[in-house]
Design brief:
The protein contains two helices and two strands, in the order ααββ. With about 70 residues, the protein is α+β, with helices and mostly antiparallel strands. It is rod-shaped, with a radius of gyration of 17 Å. The N and C termini lie far apart (about 55 Å).
């Protein structure tokens, strides 16, 4: 059981290392997008997710209806 857990942790770490979302500059872009969406009162805070294909950020933000 312990071995399986170790293996899980190892795989998790490997996945994190290979994920472009975990690069520091991407993290910065995430933070930047979060702040920009908050500053615009007519825009809901965008849902941010990584496009799995090319590791780009996609912002799916909707306009709030008044």
């Amino acid at each position: 059981m312990k071995e399986a857990h170790k293996l899980d942790q190892h795989n998790k770490k490997r996945k994190q290392a290979n994920n472009p979302a975990n690069e520091p500059e991407t993290q910065k872009r995430f933070a930047l997008l979060r702040t920009t969406t908050r500053q615009n009162p007519h825009c809901q805070v965008g849902v941010l997710h990584m496009d799995p294909g090319n590791g780009r950020l996609i912002r799916a933000s909707r306009h709030r209806t008044r």
